[in-house]
Amino acid sequence: MAGRRKNLIEDLVELTTRLPWWIGVTAALTAWGVLHVLLRIPPPFSFPSDVVILPVLRGLAMGLQYLLPAVFLAIAALSAWLRYKQYKNYADVAGERGHVALELLTWREFEQLVGEFFRRKGFRVERRGGHEPDSGVDLVASIGEDRYLVQCKHWRVQRVGVKVVREICSVAAAENAAGVFVVTSGTFTEEARRFVEENRIDIELIAGDQLRRMIQGLEMVAKTAGKGE
Distance (Å, rounded) from C-alpha 8 to C-alpha 16? Predict the structure, then answer.
């Protein structure tokens, strides 16, 4: 999904989702502690100009003593909420009404869902994107020495056609990837499925209903393993 991340706010939100909430809390406590100590250290010497400068600097530090921790705590709260929402979306799709939950996701939430699915299957997942075009690659899923390119298409009505599959296969060949996954919340055209059968590159097309069943299957295995322990 090339070219979707277009502004700084989206980049900051994306970065926040990757940060554990406790990092924000730690940063808040550290900022408050450092500024609190600095405010209590008297200056080693003074100049006449310090009569004006020092009160200004001291006032700025006193403000930052509370402002910086507040900002870091807000980031921690946002990170915790986004992480909770991500796991809740995954649980909802794994539930009995998973088809409804899948349709209600935004494109970003769908991409996060796919990334979480691959992580739970044992892949290491990294995101592509930023301000540069990503050549149709949304995620890179690696297992062992093999790298797979993943494209996510959150299309509720339109079916994913052969052009999409052909383009990501070209990228996979250029990057010497082990294969590709094209995942959609909808379905694929027959032409796209025929292309997979005729192509030598390892390609897997995962439609919305299939993705939901695979997620539900992983959850059943995890619950069974948990009971066995």
Answer: 12
